[in-house]
Design brief:
Layout lengths: L7 E2 L2 E2 L1 H30 L4 H17 L1 H35 L16 H32 L6 H30 L2 E2 L5 E2 L1 H21 L13 H18 L21 H17 L3 H7 L5 H7 L4 E2 L2 E2 L7 H24 L6 H29 L8 E8 L5 E5 L2 E5 L9 E4 L6 E4 L2 E5 L9 E8 L2 E6 L11 E7 L5 E5 L2 E6 L3 E2 L3 E3 L5 E5 L10 E3 L8 E8 L5 E9 L10 H24 L6 H25 L5 H24 L6 H20 L1 H12 L1
Parallel strand pairs: 7-13, 15-22
Antiparallel strand pairs: 1-2, 3-4, 5-6, 7-10, 8-9, 8-11, 11-12, 13-14, 15-18, 15-19, 16-17, 16-20, 20-21, 22-23
Helix pairs in contact: 1-2, 1-4, 1-5, 1-6, 2-4, 2-14, 3-4, 3-6, 3-14, 4-14, 5-6, 5-11, 5-13, 8-14, 8-16, 9-14, 11-13, 12-13, 12-15, 13-14, 16-17
């Protein structure tokens, strides 16, 4: 293979720029597609939350397990370049397949706007996801290692900087795609029926993947390509197996000890291979505690987003929806990576501290642990503002008087008088077992309320005449999801009506009864009442006051003296008051932790790996991410803490313990330069070879020194 002198630019090989652009497009494509998946599962395929979430997490875990496959193919068989190209083609096909699976008109033969055979779409999208997982996972370890290969000996500084730029490209890609892809989804398209444009939203990532592949292939002539050295992994496995067997065979005292357990393979395998395997096993051993970091890190998508739903997204003049908080991480990375690289590290070096890779990673774990302490503090603040919901066999009851005379209602231990349409007291909590309620009004007999109250739920008691009442189960025993606001209507008219609010329809709200809650995002909403009882000149259009985040209201629609409708609002759950801005410190701490931990980990994995196992160690690094994801699934499934803050504190404590263990392990790690070790072997091999080919040369030199 003729080596041309690599072209360079700012002291970096020019080929690097193709690799960074390729990574940017690939990440844009991946995150863009991932941002849509959950919505696509629910709204297009019609799956419920649990199934959608399970498939989604399985897909993410699969994307982190397939790197091992990619690394094996690259290091043993095709080499990194060919592996990246061939798996990118698989990836692009997968993206196209999933875009096709979201075309409604594919099976919608009767043009009614819903696919006739949903199973075709499900099958196609699953095939697409498997191909994508193969592609994205398979090329992941190869792209970063291939980038590292482009540098010469003595370019360590540029190489470290490359891993930072590489990480920056990953986050810039994910940031832009999480902003742009949802914009594409809200476009409408379709041949026969117009609806949300999933094919476009999935198609853009597919196109970008194709661009990424083309960019990578264009740079082909400039790359420094390291040849794969036979099936290295099976050799490694056989060597380790032999060492263990041999060690057990010689376990008695009469055999001399050997320095390292792998030295027991020296009867059958050469020194070089054994020393290369030692490098890998020492790094792999260090990786054992790392998944704990990722277990915390991956919760910003799940737990922290849920925390944001109980907070208020109004920050100054801007409004943020809870799921947009995640972009804070990507924005901070894009700002922090250059700062840490160009300002923080040089400052630490100026102070004369030797801030080694493993020290950086320990600091990263500590920062992530502190981020969860911050999250716990925020959670305690939120808990102070959350409403109390009924637990166990408690029920909560609130009375709404929608008639036109005063009513007295007696409960166990208290009696309350309600004026017509008065703002009721808060929910009152009772034990379901000894609950007796009576309604009375001046000059009329007492009416007992006979209703089977469901424990653990809130109920509203509507009264409008001494003997007329209706009990409604609220159905809300937690804050509304995703920071939205629950609105329901109570009909105090003689016959049923419909209400339309912001595109949602409440059908047939019957007389003296309440509708179900429907949910709306923040802002001012308008609603219209349609009823045959309302005469023409009346106004039917109403506006709500500004709705914040996470509140619930009941609108009672009564008839004014002139026969026109009037709406009166009653607050069931107060809106969130703690600002989402309070989440910024925990995101900041976690991001700083990620910058010093993750970028360093990529670079450390590359620099400590022997030349023929660079991809394998990158895959090992990605495996820690996969295991971290699995830890979250187990912990979340195993125990639900009654207090969310306690769970955060537990995670912080776990990571702190792991951090200390890792620091101790790191103390005993000695850094090596694989290239130097291998060069030494080359030199020895060369001397051996010369000796074999010319046995007299050695004698000559010896006799001359003796003279």
């Amino acid at each position: 293979m003729g080596m041309s002198v690599p072209k360079s630019c700012f002291g970096y090989p020019l080929s690097i720029f193709f690799i960074v652009v390729n990574e940017f497009c690939e990440r844009f494509s991946y995150y863009g597609m991932r941002a849509l998946l959950i919505l696509y599962f629910q709204r297009f395929l019609g799956w419920n939350d649990n199934l959608g979430t399970a498939i989604y997490h399985t897909f993410v875990a699969l994307c982190y397990l397939t790197p091992i496959l990619g690394a094996l193919i690259a290091d043993s068989w095709l080499g990194k370049f060919k592996t990246i190209v061939s798996l990118s083609i698989v990836y692009t096909i997968g993206q196209v397949v999933i875009a096709v699976s979201s075309i409604n008109d594919l099976t919608d033969f009767n043009h009614d706007g819903t696919p006739d055979s949903i199973s075709v779409h499900v099958a196609l999208s699953m095939i697409g996801l498997v191909l994508i997982a193969l592609g994205t996972g398979g090329i992941k370890p190869c792209v970063s290692a291939f980038g590292g290969d482009q540098f010469e000996e003595g370019q360590e500084k540029q190489r470290n900087r490359f891993f930072s730029i590489f990480y920056l490209a990953i986050n810039a890609g994910s940031l832009l795609s999480t902003i742009i892809t949802p914009m594409l989804r809200v476009q409408v398209c379709g041949i026969h029926s117009k609806q949300a444009c999933y094919p476009l939203a999935f198609g853009v990532p597919a196109a970008l993947m194709a661009v990424s592949l083309i960019v990578f292939v264009i740079g082909s002539g400039m790359y420094k390509k390291v040849q794969p050295q036979g099936n290295i992994m099976s050799k490694v496995a056989r060597c380790i197996g032999f060492a263990i067997k041999n060690r057990i065979r010689h376990r008695s005292k009469k055999f001399p000890k050997r320095q390292h357990w792998l030295d027991w393979a020296s009867e059958k395998y050469d020194e070089r291979l054994i020393s290369q395997i030692k490098m890998v096993t020492r790094v792999m051993f260090l990786y054992i505690p790392l998944p704990m970091f990722w277990a915390l890190f991956d919760q910003q998508g799940s737990r922290w987003t849920l925390q944001a739903t109980t907070m208020s997204g109004k920050i100054g003049i801007i409004e943020i929806q809870p799921d947009q908080m995640q972009t804070v991480n990507a924005i901070l990375i894009v700002i922090m990576v250059p700062i840490v690289d160009a300002v923080v590290y040089p400052l630490i070096a100026k102070c004369g501290l030797n801030f080694t890779s493993l020290k950086k990673m320990t600091v990263g774990m500590f920062l992530a642990s502190m981020a969860f302490v911050a999250a716990a503090i925020v959670q305690v603040e939120i808990d102070k503002t959350l409403p109390v919901f009924p637990k166990g066999n408690e029920v909560q009851i609130k009375v709404l008087n929608i008639g036109d005379s005063n009513m007295t209602v007696s409960f166990p231990g208290t009696t309350e008088t309600y004026n017509q349409m008065s703002q009721p007291k808060d929910f009152m909590t009772f034990n379901v077992d000894n609950l007796s309620i009576n309604i009375s009004s001046t000059g009329s007999p007492v009416t007992p309320v006979t209703h089977n109250f469901e424990s653990g739920h809130r109920h509203t008691l509507l009264v409008w005449a001494p003997s007329n009442y209706q009990v409604v189960k609220d159905g809300l025993n937690q804050k509304p999801e995703k920071g939205r606001n629950g609105i329901r209507f109570v009909n105090a008219f003689g016959e049923s009506f419909n209400v339309t609010m912001d595109g949602e329809v409440y059908n047939n709200v019957s007389s003296h009864n309440a509708s179900e809650y429907l949910f709306f995002s923040s802002g001012v909403k308008s609603f219209t009442i349609n009823s045959p009882e309302i005469s023409q000149p009346c106004g039917k259009e109403f506006k709500t006051p500004y709705l914040g985040f996470g509140s619930a209201f009941t609108y009672v629609i009564t008839r004014k003296s002139d026969g026109c409708p009037e709406a009166k609002a009653f607050e069931d759950i107060s809106p969130n008051t703690v600002s989402m801005a309070l989440q910024i410190p925990q995101y900041f701490l976690l991001t700083c932790g990620e910058v010093v931990f993750s970028v360093t980990g990529l670079e450390f994995s590359y620099s400590q790996a022997p030349s023929n196992m660079k991809s394998v160690l990158q895959a090992g690094w990605l495996l820690t991410v996969a295991v971290g994801n699995i830890i979250v699934l187990i912990v979340a499934g195993a125990g639900q803490f009654s207090e969310q803050w306690a769970e955060y504190v537990l995670f912080a404590a776990l990571l702190l313990v792991v951090c200390v263990i890792f620091a101790i392990m790191a103390r005993f790690y000695t850094y090596i330069n694989p290239a130097e070790v291998e060069a030494q072997f080359d030199k020895d091999d060369k001397e051996d070879y010369l000796e074999k080919s010319n046995p007299y040369a050695k004698l000559d030199s010896v006799s001359q020194t003796q003279m």
